Amino acid sequence: MSHCMTSAWSISLTLLFSVPALALDPDAQRGLTFVSANCTECHSVDKVSPSPLAIAPPFRTLHNKYPVENLAKSLAEGIMTGHPTMPQFRLDPGQIGDVLAYLKTLE
């Protein structure tokens, strides 16, 4: 490997390990855990991946259609989309806060 490539590789590794990962606050982390366990079969729940089910919107785009805070009532009452494979979820107030906190990290 040339000296330039070795130096570039060394700098890349240094940056990779010296820049701290962005940690989620506890509410958002619990929200991520919930959506990871319940939603990833159909929806993308991160900032880059496509949804496994093409018609299922990636969660990172939800704020483009709805203010995230406005989803609280739907999460409490049960989201009903009319899509036959979308399960109906009714979240408790703590879960709602956690999921909303996570969704806000995707904006």
Question: How would you explain this protein's 3D organization?
Answer:
By secondary structure, the protein is an all-alpha fold. The protein has one domain: Cytochrome c-like domain (Cytochrome Bc1 Complex, Chain D, domain 2, Orthogonal Bundle), CATH 1.10.760. Helix content is 50%, strand content 0%. Helix 2 crosses helix 5. The relative contact order is 0.17. The N terminus is likely disordered.
In short:
Helices cover 50% and strands 0% of the residues.
Keywords, please?
single chain; 107 residues; mainly alpha; Cytochrome Bc1 Complex, Chain D, domain 2; 5 helices; 50% helix; 0% strand; globular; disordered N terminus
The CATH architecture assignment turns out to be Orthogonal Bundle
Structural class: mainly alpha
Helix content: 40-55%
Instruction: Tell me the radius of gyration.
Output: 18 Å
How would the blueprint of this fold be written?
Blueprint: H1 3-18, H2 26-38, H3 62-65, H4 71-77, H5 93-105
Helix pairs in contact: 2-5, 4-5
